[in-house]
């Protein structure tokens, strides 16, 4: 899968499997940025700090989102798409 120069949106990306996926995307060249969507703001900010240190602050963003709410998820997707 070619991810170079792409934006990746990872739901549940602040911890567990989602965080591991976010890390792999960054390691494998998601050059634009990885958006971590998660309801837990504290974990989200912690993941961003950790990844920013290694990959640069411009490569990872935290977006608070309850992915069980379809309208919220669509809104955050559209927001990320415009970036």
Automatic annotation (TrEMBL):
Example GO molecular function: 15-hydroxyprostaglandin dehydrogenase (NAD+) activity
Keywords assigned: Oxidoreductase
Positions in coiled-coil regions: none
Matching Gene3D superfamilies: NAD(P)-binding Rossmann-like Domain
InterPro entries: NAD(P)-bd_dom_sf (IPR036291), SDR_fam (IPR002347)
Family: Belongs to the short-chain dehydrogenases/reductases (SDR) family.
Protein name: 15-hydroxyprostaglandin dehydrogenase [NAD(+)]
Keyword field contains Oxidoreductase: yes
Functional summary from the UniProt entry: Catalyzes the NAD-dependent dehydrogenation (oxidation) of a broad array of hydroxylated polyunsaturated fatty acids (mainly eicosanoids and docosanoids, including prostaglandins, lipoxins and resolvins), yielding their corresponding keto (oxo) metabolites. Decreases the levels of the pro-proliferative prostaglandins such as prostaglandin E2 (whose activity is increased in cancer because of an increase in the expression of cyclooxygenase 2) and generates oxo-fatty acid products that can profoundly influence cell function by abrogating pro-inflammatory cytokine expression.
Cellular component per GO, a single term: cytoplasm
Reaction(s) this enzyme catalyzes, per UniProt: 15-oxo-(5S,6R)-dihydroxy-(7E,9E,11Z)-eicosatrienoate + NADH + H(+) = (5S,6R,15S)-trihydroxy-(7E,9E,11Z)-eicosatrienoate + NAD(+); resolvin E1 + NAD(+) = 18-oxo-resolvin E1 + NADH + H(+); resolvin D2 + NAD(+) = 16-oxoresolvin D2 + NADH + H(+); lipoxin A4 + NAD(+) = 15-oxo-(5S,6R)-dihydroxy-(7E,9E,11Z,13E)-eicosatetraenoate + NADH + H(+)
Pfam families tied to this protein: adh_short (PF00106)
Enzyme nomenclature, EC number: 1.1.1.141, 1.1.1.232
Domain of life: Eukaryota
């Amino acid at each position: 899968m070619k991810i170079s120069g792409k934006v990746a949106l990872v739901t549940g990306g602040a911890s567990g499997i989602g965080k591991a996926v976010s890390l792999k995307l960054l390691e494998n060249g998601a050059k634009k940025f990885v958006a971590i969507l998660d309801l837990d703001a504290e974990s989200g900010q912690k993941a961003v700090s950790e990844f920013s240190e290694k990959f640069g602050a411009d490569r990872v963003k935290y977006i608070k989102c309850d992915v069980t709410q379809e309208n919220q998820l669509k809104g955050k997707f559209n927001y990320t798409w415009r970036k």
